Amino acid sequence: MSVKAFKLVSAVEREMLMGDKNYINIECIECCGKNLYIGTNDCFIYHFLLDEKISAAGKVTFAATKQLHKYLGLKKPVNELKAASALTRLLVLCDNTITLVNMMNLEPVPTGARIKGAVAFTLNENPVGGDPFCVELCMISVKRRTVQVFMVFEDRVQIVKEVFTPEQPCAVAVDGYYLCLALTTQYIILNYNTGISQDLFPYCSDEKRPIVKRIGRQEFLLAGPGGLGMFATVDGISQRAPVHWSENVIGAALCFPYVVALDEEFITVHSMLDQQQKQTLPFKEGHILQDFEGKVIVATNKGVYILVPLPLEKQIQDLLASHRVEEALILAKGARRNIPKEKFQV
């Protein structure tokens, strides 16, 4: 049974990004407040300001205004972008090097601080240090079976730890001292402070793209065997039942109380409260699905779209209207912390 939980709204049309240049493809995106950054296959970063407009009828639209674009001077794609807003820095991975650039003018920091030898990286949203003017970065190194942890400041970087893994890592998420890693044949949790690691479950990275995503304090979401979206805590246990995805999921995101997944043809929405599939949106050629501060963004090679959640009260009323009282109660109780108190009482 379907629930209308999200609406797909266009944010950046292809003409705004590439005009008539067909060869330009979107490689990665980052969103921080109203700032949307796009990295392309021809080594450019584009900066847009996203303005959300809500009509009197409650219809949501987005207007993207291009601020500037910057060529990084290489013939390589921009692989990854991460914003560190406390430092007003954008971290850019291109040609195995992470460069620090200013979030507003996209100019590299004057000191030239950079990290070489990176395959992929992520930022620690639950940092272990108390310095507000520093971000913790964890990266998969080009050195075989190595993960490195760095402190990144406004104009310098400092290595903190180098950790060796039993197999080659291909994806990483981090929470505090805990690394959740997709290795060649399995997922593991590794405490980089103590060096203690724990096997989670087997997985073949040759056959499918691994998904490792931090979804909250000490909890991760992983693409498991048999098309299952599995939850795992840092203790290696699962406190929630898995959700049933398709076999070829490309990306996953969390927008409480829903888990959103992208495959080659659809965006699917599952409830974390009862694990049921609630909505299916046709979406062809999608290759990126990420959530940024509660905003879920999907992208094809040519355009960027936002999944706008419908108000929970409206979803509950729709369920009641179609006599699905049990589901309405589960959603109301499970999403209680996201509904204003007086509306919840009603």
From TrEMBL:
Keywords attached to this Swiss-Prot or TrEMBL record, sorted alphabetically, are:
Cytoplasm, Protein transport, Transport
Q: What is its main location?
A: cytoplasm
Gene Ontology cellular-component annotations: cytoplasm; membrane
Q: Name one GO biological process term.
A: autophagy
Compartment(s) of residence: Cytoplasm
Q: Give start and end of each CNH domain.
A: 23-296
InterPro entries in the record: CNH_dom (IPR001180), Vam6/VPS39/TRAP1 (IPR032914)
Concerning PROSITE patterns, the annotation shows: CNH (PS50219)
- Which stretches are annotated as coiled coil? none
Q: Which Pfam families match?
A: CNH
Instruction: Quote the protein name from its UniProt record.
Output: TGFA1 protein
Q: Which organism is it from?
A: Ceyx cyanopectus (Indigo-banded kingfisher)
